Amino acid sequence: MEKYDIVVIGGGPAGAAFSYFIDPKYNVLLLEKRNYGKDTLHKKSCGGLLNETAQSLLSALGYGLPVDILVNPQVFHVRILDWDNNLSKKYYKGYLNIDREKLDNFLLSRSERENKGLTVRRGAVYHDFQRINKGAYRIKYRMDGILKYAETRLVIGADGANSRVAAEIVPNIQNDYISIQRRYKKCREMREFYAILDRSVNDYYSWVIPKEDEILLGSILRKDGNPRERFDLLEAKLREKESVIGDFLTEEGAFIKRPGWKAPFVGHGNFGLIGEAAGFISPSSSEGISYALKSGYLLAKHLNRYGSETGINRYESSCAGLIRNIRVKYLKSKLLYTPWTRNLLIRSGIHAEEAL
Ligand SMILES: Cc1cc2nc3c(=O)[nH]c(=O)nc-3n(C[C@H](O)[C@H](O)[C@H](O)COP(=O)(O)OP(=O)(O)OC[C@H]3O[C@@H](n4cnc5c(N)ncnc54)[C@H](O)[C@@H]3O)c2cc1C
């Protein structure tokens, strides 16, 4: 059985940032089930918008993005379509419209290239871990159809919203939301991103994003009831109100977290959780890339500074700022997703773009 100081499950933005910044003195194994570019089964479902916080964080962490990650057209504002109140308003937002698969591949490849202590296994699906003695764990995973094992002292869960690592270490973990995204042929040019608010569809929001010759329609829905039926309703309403989507092409589904007020479990002792596995995602916009990068960086920084004995506990304390930030967004989401308070906000025109 191979031995490592640290095993990381998941090579999305959180796992990639962690494995880039962790000191090469640590012998690290990262397991990622996706085989970027070749794997259609495990493709990450995403709107592919990089907001300004994620951009400035990438810059602060020393990343520069290659242009081939960008997708046409670049969208500089969001149009809020409030179907509950029959309102529409445009707001400036400096997004980058990106190909998510390419971004993840770029981030992980850079860690793989530059961290000499790191071994990345792509196409490796993590199953579970078992404690073998005090402070040592046996990780089970499957690769090329074969069960494999690795021994480690520290286990890092960077495996996203439906984290198996979190499910093993956090009692009563619950995920109430899923997302559905459909791709369509484009009907007409679209240079904005729509955020649709409609209580008959969800208690969150839905989005329409142009991607080259296609249009992405996505929504975050409660798992109970019949989410697909509510998505069909959204599609029908969009066809009726805005002629942007043409023939249906594909559909994908994903788990997504919507944090509440309660502080998440981010790790302790030999276990660390980063990114969405730890519940780090905005409850108001579901933007998660910046949180994934930041928490991955923070965990690496604390392990580098304080060592493997206390590094994860120090990381736990350092997450207070991230948790506060999520709580502020949680309160903001209460205003945004209550139709009458939203009505007041939109009508007030605060932060809205001038109509020319
Ligand atoms: C539909 C949708 C649209 C979104 N749109 C945006 C957006 O436009 N902008 C934005 O900022 N955020 C968006 N988000 C949120 C964002 O995608 C996530 O919050 C972010 O990707 C979290 O990063 P992460 O590294 O923590 O997890 P992930 O990106 O989910 O990465 C987890 C990784 O773990 C791997 N993995 C999972 N299980 C296993 C296993 N058992 N074995 C091995 N590997 C495993 C996965 O393949 C994946 O690569 C969206 C989310 C959804 C669902």
- Helix/strand-derived class? alpha/beta
Q: What ligand species are in this complex?
A: flavin-adenine dinucleotide
CATH architectural type of the largest domain: 3-Layer(bba) Sandwich
CATH superfamily of the largest domain: FAD/NAD(P)-binding domain
- CATH topology (fold) name of the largest domain: FAD/NAD(P)-binding domain
Number of strands: 17
Strand content: 25-35%
Low-confidence stretches: none
First-to-last CA distance: 67 Å
In angstroms, what is the radius of gyration? 21 Å
**Count of discrete domains:** 2
Largest sheet: 8 strands, mixed
User: Helicity range of the residues?
Assistant: 25-40%
CATH class label of the largest domain:
Alpha Beta
**How would you state the average pLDDT, rounded?**
95
Please tell me what the overall shape is. Answer: globular
What order do the SSEs take from the amino end to the carboxyl end, as H and E? Answer: EHEEHEEEHEEEEHEEEEHEEEHHH
Count helical runs.
Answer: 8
Question: Would you summarize the structure shown here?
Answer:
This protein has 356 residues and is of the alpha/beta class.
Describe the structure using short key phrases.
356 residues; alpha/beta; FAD/NAD(P)-binding domain; D-Amino Acid Oxidase, Chain A, domain 2; 2 domains; eight-stranded mixed beta sheet; seven-stranded mixed beta sheet; 31% helix; binds flavin-adenine dinucleotide
Characterise the protein shown here.
This protein is α/β, with parallel strands linked by helices. The chain folds into two domains: 2-58 and 99-174 and 263-332, FAD/NAD(P)-binding domain, CATH 3.50.50.60; 69-98 and 176-258 and 335-348, 2-Layer Sandwich (D-Amino Acid Oxidase, Chain A, domain 2). It has helices spanning 13-21, 52-60, 100-114, 164-169, 227-241, 289-318, 320-336, 339-348, and strands at 2-9, 28-32, 49-50, 77-82, 87-92, 96-97, 118-122, 124-133, 136-143, 146-157, 177-186, 193-197, 206-211, 214-222, 245-256, 267-268, 271-273. Strands 1, 2, 7, 8, 9, 10, 16 and 17 form an eight-stranded mixed beta sheet that branches. Helix 1 (13-21) runs parallel beside helix 3 (100-114), helix 1 packs across helix 6 and helix 2 crosses helix 6 (289-318). The model has no long low-confidence stretch (mean pLDDT 95). Bound molecules: flavin-adenine dinucleotide (FAD). Residues 9-15, 31-34, 42, 44-49, 54, 125-126, 158-160, 164, 179, 181, 218, 254, 256, 275-277, 281, 286-289, 292 line the site of flavin-adenine dinucleotide.
